[in-house]
Write a structure and sequence with these properties.
The complex is a heterodimer of chains A (265) and B (285). Chain A is of the alpha+beta class. In chain A, 27% of the residues lie in helices and 21% in strands. Chain A is built from 6 helices and 10 strands. In chain A, a hairpin with a 5-residue loop joins strand 1 and strand 2. With 285 residues, chain B is α+β, with helices and mostly antiparallel strands. Chain B folds into 2 domains: 215 residues, Up-down Bundle (Fumarate Reductase Cytochrome B subunit), CATH 1.20.950.20; 57 residues, no CATH class. In chain B, the strands form 3 sheets. Chain B has a 4-stranded antiparallel beta sheet with strand order 3-4-5-6. Chain B has a 3-stranded antiparallel beta sheet with strand order 1-2-9. The longest helix of chain B is centred in the middle third of the chain and has 29 residues. The chains are: A alpha+beta (265), B alpha+beta (285). At the A-B interface, helix 1, helix 2 and strand 4 of A face helix 1, helix 2, helix 7, helix 9 and helix 10 of B.
Chain lengths: 265, 285
């Protein structure tokens, strides 16, 4: 460490060297980052932070803490429909043709009493309405009013077995465009969210029958997480102990494509 | 912890190596550099998923405060940035531009400066949230050290005399005369304090307000920042201010003795002119 290192006369060469070095380092850094992003070990290290985020949020969030509810004048008149907005699967088109009169919700898996419910039966159950903010993973938000039956009510009717840990939603829309069962949308949530008071199976939006772009005839609202958790076009609900063996094994359509299973942030 | 160097030799410029930055400051500084760089680049990746900003709780898609978009003109597509209704042609910088093959590609920020360098909101989020934890833990360690050791009081809080001299300091800086000695000057202290105590905490606070889980746990976050979309916009603005700070900071590092500055943030040792020159003639320097 001598004084000669002091930069009393910064020469052009030195600056040129710095600039070239900086550009080279930048290029290497950017290229390196892309290589790192595709390395599965790095991906797993980065994803490990999801577990920390989930643990901390669960610790801060009491099971019954509610997402903010808004006033009717705050309802968005341009609520964005995202993901599938007009499913073209043959079984869905057939159901849509006569206003979902033949649609049935199947509730099964780890339950004592498997259920098959029509829309009228769901509408006959105690209803909850809530005006909430829908936060998309992309960054935008829209506010809407949702009416439906609390998922907890349906699950209590079906009586979960003690080893049930997750609720899986199977959907009609083929968002993966594979033309198979496996490419259709699905999602899963933990029981703490399934039993949250604002977690409802919604059949109405803004006081009207749930429109097709927003998931007719039935979608789930999971108000303390991002939009991709809130499956639309629901066909069946299954209680499971683990989602490891379902399709990609990550617990949802987008999760199988790299997104975090816990979407509270 | 000072080491005299060459001060007995007579009329050569007198320098003294002083111990300027503690190990805690140096370590947390460089970890913060890495964390902020990754957060910025992955943040632009996330922003590109919906390159528009709004105020309030929800998005008014027809009337964004800022939007990066594109338009078709007579001779092809142009990248456009719209700020409060005024449109600017920002082809190649914002909104869209030619990709490596020369094809027009839509973006908010160019993919060459996002992390990853291709469209992947999922990976962008993983990078962002992992390094958000690095940033938070590193920041808490720094704050605990800075308060406990007196670093804030001793090195970063300007006294009344310094505050009175602020006008002089601004004039001197404007003339590119930098009196960077043993400690920080008043403008340095104030800008560091603003970044450490205002901008960086603002990034964290507005970032958490975008989380629907955190909003349920702490609904007052929404009230502080005026709604989730306002929080997202403030997150963006304060990121831009931090980038501005980094540009000025790096510029000052370059022009006020780059090797001396770098050495002091790596080894802790910083060369200063000795306070009392041995020969009276040198006092006029």
């Amino acid at each position: 460490m001598s004084d000669k290192e002091d930069n009393e006369k910064p020469g052009l060469n030195r600056r040129g060297f710095l600039a070239r070095g900086g550009a080279l380092a930048g290029t290497l850094f950017l290229g390196g980052c892309d290589a790192l992003s595709q390395n599965s070990t790095v991906q797993n290290i980065l994803k490990s932070a999801d577990g920390l985020t989930e643990a901390v949020q669960r610790a801060l969030l009491s099971p019954d803490a509610l997402a903010r509810e808004y006033s009717p004048d705050e309802i968005s008149n341009d609520f964005k429909a995202n993901g599938s907005t007009d499913p073209q699967t043959p079984d869905y088109l057939k159901l849509a043709e006569n206003g979902f009169k033949d649609w049935r919700l199947k509730v099964g898996g780890l339950v004592e009493t498997p259920l098959t419910l029509s829309l009228d039966e769901l509408r006959g159950m105690p209803a909850r309405s809530q005006i909430t903010r829908h936060d998309c993973v992309e960054g935008w938000s829209s506010i809407g009013k949702w009416t439906g039956v609390q998922l907890s009510h349906v699950l209590d009717r079906a009586k979960l077995k003690p080893n049930a840990k997750y609720i899986v939603f199977y959907c009609y829309d083929d968002l993966g465009r594979g033309g198979t069962e496996a490419s259709r949308y699905y999602e899963s949530i933990a029981l703490v969210d399934a039993y949250h008071p604002q977690t409802i199976l919604a059949y109405e939006m803004n006081d009207e029958t749930l429109p097709i772009p927003h998931g007719a005839p039935l979608r789930v609202r999971v108000e303390r997480q991002l939009g991709y958790k809130m499956a639309k076009y629901i066909r069946a609900i299954e209680a499971v102990e683990s989602y490891d063996d379902i399709r990609g094994g990550e617990g949802g359509f987008w999760e199988d494509r790299g997104y975090a299973w816990y979407a509270g942030i | 912890m000072t080491a005299a160097a060459g001060s007995e030799a007579g009329i050569a410029p007198r320098k003294e190596l002083v111990y300027r930055h503690s190990g805690w400051v140096r370590a947390t500084h460089w970890i913060n550099v890495l964390a902020l760089l990754v957060l910025l680049m992955s943040g632009m990746q996330i922003f590109n998923a919906h390159p528009a900003l709004y105020f309030g709780s929800a998005s008014d898609f027809d009337d964004p405060a800022v939007a990066m978009t594109y338009e078709r003109t007579g001779d092809g597509y142009r990248g456009v940035t719209e700020i409060f209704g005024t449109r600017f042609d920002t082809t190649g910088w914002l909104g869209g531009g030619a990709d490596a093959e020369g094809e027009f590609t839509r973006y908010g920020f160019p993919w060459s400066i996002t992390l990853p360098g291709y469209r992947s909101l999922a990976m962008g989020r993983h990078w962002h949230f992992f390094f958000a934890w690095v940033f938070v833990i590193n920041g808490l360690i720094y704050l605990a050290y800075a308060f406990a050791s007196g670093h804030f009081r001793r090195d970063l809080t300007p006294d009344g005399k310094e505050m009175k001299g602020i006008g002089h300091s601004i004039v001197e800086h404007a003339k590119f005369r930098f009196d960077h000695g043993r400690g920080y000057n008043v403008l340095q202290k104030l800008s560091y304090l603003v970044v450490i105590l205002v901008l960086l905490p603002l990034m964290l606070g507005t970032g958490l307000t975008m989380s629907p889980g955190m909003d349920a746990a702490f609904p007052w976050l929404l009230d502080i920042f005026g709604g989730r979309q306002s929080a997202r916009t403030i997150h963006f603005i304060s990121a831009a201010l931090i980038v501005l700070f980094v540009f000025v900071h790096v510029f000052m590092v370059l022009v006020s003795g780059v090797w001396n500055n770098l050495r002091s943030m790596i080894t802790g040792r910083y060369a200063v002119r000795t306070a009392e020159p041995a020969h009276p003639r040198e006092a006029a320097e």
